[in-house]
Specification:
single chain, DNA Cyclobutane Dipyrimidine Photolyase, subunit A, domain 3, Rossmann fold
Amino acid sequence: MTEPVPDLRIRALNGEPLRPDGAHVLCWMTAFRRLSWNHTLDRAVEHARELGLPLLIFEALRVDYPWASDRHHRFVLDGMREHRATLDRGPVGYLPWVEPRAGAGKGLLERLAADAAVVVTDDAPFFFLPRMTAAAAERLDVRLEAVDSNGLYPIHHAERTFTTAASFRRHLQKELPAFLGDAPSAAPPLDALTPFENLDSLLDGRWMPASDAMLDPDGGGLDALGIDHDVGPVPFRGGSGPARERLERFLAERLPEYHERRNEPDDETGSRLSPYLHWGHISSWEVFHRLAERDDWTPARLATTPNGRREGWWNMSKEAEAFVDELVTWREIGFNYCAREAEPARYESLPEWARATLAEHAADPRPHLYTLEEFEAAETHDELWNAAQRELRREGTIHNYLRMLWGKKILEWSESPQEALKIMIELNNRWAVDGRDPNSYSGIMWVLGRYDRGWPERDVFGKVRSMTSQSTRRKVSVDDYLDRFGPEAA
């Protein structure tokens, strides 16, 4: 028997009742697109077992979300294909639905919920998802629950917005131990549920599940959709299976040197898990669990007194502690911000000191000025910056250290910091397969001063931290990186 989902992770989005005489339980999968390590799915299974009802999982993909493209669609569809293959063998109903044109999905959620005892969905505090679930809550006449499966720390537990990683780290070291036993189920008991059998009658012939051609990466199903076809799929597959393969490869081959070499662009020591974390194909709980297994770690090894430092509190190996700080502290501080602040990407949300110093230097001459189109095409004077932009266009990611340089130079080479913010958001959200994520906005806003402190004053940047390609090349090795992403490689 699995443990119940903690109440702190469950929110009722409307005042409608749960209907015990309903025909099924509906799990509306919007952000945590996985069949394990998922508090949302666990909550839906709880309801189904308690009520003795079948479970229907509804995983939809709109056609008109901002920056919709072959890249983002294909990554999600890879996961849908995997889910259909898994769920076709068992009693759980599954509806993978891809909107063929804007508005075609109108009424579908209401139809699936009309006979439901309860609807359970994801409590994801980013992109358009909060607005979408809030609007659905007003339309449905059945209880709609939103469940937080974002990370190890519940997003609604903190009573303030944290402005530095150090302050958030101190808070986590005091509060997180109480939640480390609340992991979602690694293997939810889906096979024990009552079979779901009436999907065709629910759809009324009006809505059709995603076709084989749509879910097949070589099937050409994307061609007819009104999305951005200039942004092609990344050269790796989405889905929980590929995510786990990448995790195991990282643990075996890259983690041992992670604490020493993760900033080296010539080395592939990073986890490269961010696309899978963003699209919900893997949970940070599962990543943390595998890391703990590797180190033979249990919560009993935690330091008894919080120290606020990156090292020494977890009492893991050096490489594991370095990675956990990225996975938990730096990843989840972005969720803290998005869960508590309505517009995390608004320029006015920057710290007052950062806005003040950038305003003081707004009229400083820029050493170079580039348009969005020139940035996007990697047509600057700087070969290292151009290589980072080519990696973004080709791979859908940028090496983490060079991502910082990428943003800092956009700030330096744009007409204003406000324009730099618009350019970073556009390039990141269009081309990065992990864009539109709280982590993305943490990184972009860090370029402009969020989560940072004042540094020696410089032209254009003021007291906001600056970076140069010359200093980067002195600190890290980039020759192989330039070979991989130079103009000849393109």
